[in-house]
Amino acid sequence: MGNKEALGLAILRIVVGIIFFAHGYQKLFQLGFHGVAATFGHIGIPVPAVSAGLVILVEFVGGFLLLTGLATRIPAALNAVDMIVAIALVHGRHGFFSQRGGFEYPLALLAATLCLALAGGGAAAVKRL
Questions:
Q1: Residue 29 and which of 21, 22, 36, 124 are 20 to 30 A apart at CA?
Q2: What is the pTM of this model?
Q3: Contact 61, 24 (CB under 8 A)
Q4: CA 72 → CA 4, 10, 52, 58, 126, distances in Å?
Q5: Residue 123 has what DSSP assignment?
Q6: Secondary-structure breakdown of the chain: helix, strand, coil percentages, each rounded to the nearest 5
C-alpha cells in the first residue's frame, strides 16, 4: 500500500472512530443504558436491554479502537453490522434523506466501516508504533 492510500485510510479511520466514539459516549453517559434500552424497546428493536448493551459497547469501545488504531478490522466490521441493523430497523422506513430520519447518514457510515474492515486502518495507528 502506498503512502497516499495509507494516509487516506488513516483519515477515514480517525474520523469514523470519532463519530462512533461520540455516539457511544452519548449513549453511555448522556442517555444512559436504561434510556437507550427504553428507546430501543419503544422503536421495536428486539431484546432492547441486550441490544442497548451491545450497541453501546460496539460504538464506544469500537470507536475508541478505530480512533487510536489499536484495532481496525474487527471494530469496523462490528460497527458495519450496527449500521445495517440501524438502516433495517430504524432509518429505512423514513426514506433516504437524513433530514427526515432516513438512512443516508448510516449508509455513508456503513460504506466507511466496510472499507476499513476490508482494507485496514492505514497509517498513524498506535498499533504500528
A1: 124
A2: 0.94
A3: yes
A4: 18, 10, 22, 12, 11
A5: S
A6: 80, 0, 20
Give the DSSP per-residue string, 3-52.
HHHHHHHHHHHHHHHHHHHHHHHIIIIIIHHHHHHHHHHHTT-SSHHHHH
Identify the CA nearest to 52 among candidates 28, 76, 75, 80.
28
Grid coordinates representing 87?
438502516
Q: Alpha-carbon distance 120 to 116, whole Å?
A: 5
Q: Tens digits of per-residue pLDDT, 45-90?
A: 999 999 999 999 999 999 999 999 999 999 999 999 999 999 999 9
| Cα 102 off chain centre by | 16
Grid look-up 494516509 returns: 7
The dihedrals phi and psi of 128, each to the nearest 5 degrees, come to: -80, -20
Name which of 93, 87, 79, 81 is nearest 24 in CA terms: 79
